[in-house]
Task: inverse folding
């Protein structure tokens, strides 16, 4: 890691793994962080650790300290209470940052419980879970959706003080901070004043963050379109969910210091927190699977992928069998992420812009059918695209926004062919979630699990007809009177 001094560290950052809520790609994020000569950076996606391993590897490659974290959703009562009538009432936000391996393992358990036990609109934890799994974690009060900020916006100072004191008691002195931001929102100004008051009253330190959702200020329009894709709304809908400012970007250290010149300790505390966070993960190692397989286990190589062929029905049977044999906590399916490619980005953005379907479809069909083709390459290959943009400002905007959103994750699903089997509970090593079919699924992708040394068991798709003929040959013959 770099030994350079740092004046400021971003501790509240959302990436594309905050699905459809951030336009920040990891490559762009770390290129900008290197440009700013940052010592460290945190990743705090909403309720999950989907991108944690990829983030960690990007950081190591860039020579920047990775701080794995998460913006948790905290249920107002019990995580099992699912009676709230709206998303807003169902949870508050809380940022947690990993200090060490104990904190990492606790965050694995928290994010897993959020999906397996507390899911209601979002994956939610509660204060009971925080109390049980707070060791090795630093918490901050989060954004305007945080519990302390929510009470301050309602004018309930006593409730805000009570909430701040409760979090301080859970995480311990020196491990809970009150966030202040300068994002241009009038309600943020009210919250900042209340936060400073509570900080003085309870001796809880403040920390400056920017709740980053995009790279630079002029990315706000693309981010607005992304929120429309998330919510199914259009840019001309005045009632749509959107951010009322263009200030939630990855500010430079100089900008942050200037904005918080009235509270220099809020800046210096970012470095203090980063100094406390020193997680080291062992990647590119081998974790032998369950069973008697020995190949690759002791030769310093990565564990092999194990491929077997079954019909769709056979794969389901095998998954149930190994789950029953090795334990429901040691077998899981694997998450996969679908990204917006050039054509799909055009179609999504076209809907967000309320453009006629036929017009959008015509533009999308101009993109050459080349695997993983970027919009930049498509424009270089297809003169009709450039001509359409030249003739129409709306098409120019369509292509511009599509360019900005291509490559972002559009949704997650379960890998159709891969499972992972462990010799110990998976939640001790990997965060978990549930599929729509209620199957246990890793929050880490196939590549992440391979980099962590897990063996991946593959069950490829084979044509149903081929399997059916094959089954005729392998089914045992029944004994008859003539045999």
Result:
């Amino acid at each position: 890691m770099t030994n350079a001094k740092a004046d400021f560290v971003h501790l509240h950052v959302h990436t594309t793994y905050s699905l459809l809520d951030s336009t920040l790609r990891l490559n762009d994020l770390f290129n900008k962080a290197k440009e700013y000569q940052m010592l460290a950076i945190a990743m705090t996606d909403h309720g999950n650790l989907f991108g944690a391993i990829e983030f960690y590897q990007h950081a190591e490659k860039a020579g920047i300290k990775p701080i794995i974290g998460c913006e948790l959703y905290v249920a107002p009562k019990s995580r099992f209470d699912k009676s709230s009538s709206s998303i807003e009432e169902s949870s508050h936000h809380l940022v947690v940052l990993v200090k060490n391996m104990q904190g990492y393992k606790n965050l694995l358990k928290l994010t897993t419980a959020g999906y397996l036990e507390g899911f209601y609109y979002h994956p939610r934890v509660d204060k009971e879970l925080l109390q049980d799994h707070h060791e090795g974690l630093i918490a901050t009060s989060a954004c305007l959706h945080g519990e302390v900020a929510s009470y301050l916006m309602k004018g309930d100072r006593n409730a805000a003080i009570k909430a701040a004191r409760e979090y301080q008691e859970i995480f311990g002195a020196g491990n809970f901070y009150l966030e202040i931001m300068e994002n241009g929102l009038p309600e943020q100004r009210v919250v900042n004043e209340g936060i400073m008051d509570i900080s003085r009253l309870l001796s809880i330190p403040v920390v400056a963050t920017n709740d980053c959702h995009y790279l630079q200020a002029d990315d706000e329009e693309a981010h607005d379109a992304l929120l429309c894709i998330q919510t199914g709304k259009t840019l001309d809908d005045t009632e749509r969910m959107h951010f009322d400012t263009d200030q939630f970007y990855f500010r430079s250290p100089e900008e942050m210091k200037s904005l918080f010149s009235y509270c220099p300790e809020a800046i210096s505390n970012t470095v203090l927190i980063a100094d406390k966070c020193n997680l080291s993960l062992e990647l590119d190692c081998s974790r032998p699977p369950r069973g008697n397989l020995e190949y690759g286990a002791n030769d310093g190589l990565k564990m092999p992928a194990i491929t077997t062929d079954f019909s769709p029905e056979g794969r389901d049977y095998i998954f149930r069998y190994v789950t029953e044999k090795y334990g429901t906590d040691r077998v899981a399916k694997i998450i996969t992420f679908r990204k917006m490619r050039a054509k799909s980005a055009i179609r999504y953005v076209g809907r967000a812009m309320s453009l006629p379907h036929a017009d959008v479809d015509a533009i999308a069909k101009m993109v050459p059918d080349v695997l993983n083709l970027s919009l930049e390459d498509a424009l270089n290959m297809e003169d009709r695209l450039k001509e359409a943009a030249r003739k129409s400002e709306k098409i120019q905007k369509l292509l511009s926004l599509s360019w900005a959103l291509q490559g972002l994750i559009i949704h997650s699903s379960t890998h159709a062919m891969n499972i992972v089997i462990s010799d110990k509970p998976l939640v001790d090593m990997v965060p978990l979630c549930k599929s729509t079919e209620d199957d246990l699924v890793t929050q880490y992708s196939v590549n992440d699990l391979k980099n962590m040394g897990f063996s991946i068991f593959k069950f490829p798709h084979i044509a149903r007809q081929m399997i059916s003929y094959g089954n005729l040959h392998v089914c045992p013959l029944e004994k008859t009177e003539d045999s």
Observations:
- Residues 290-298, 461-483 have pLDDT under 50 and may be disordered.
- Residues 169 and 363 are 57 Å apart (CA to CA).
- The longest helix spans residues 186-202.
- Residues 306-338+411-474 form one domain.
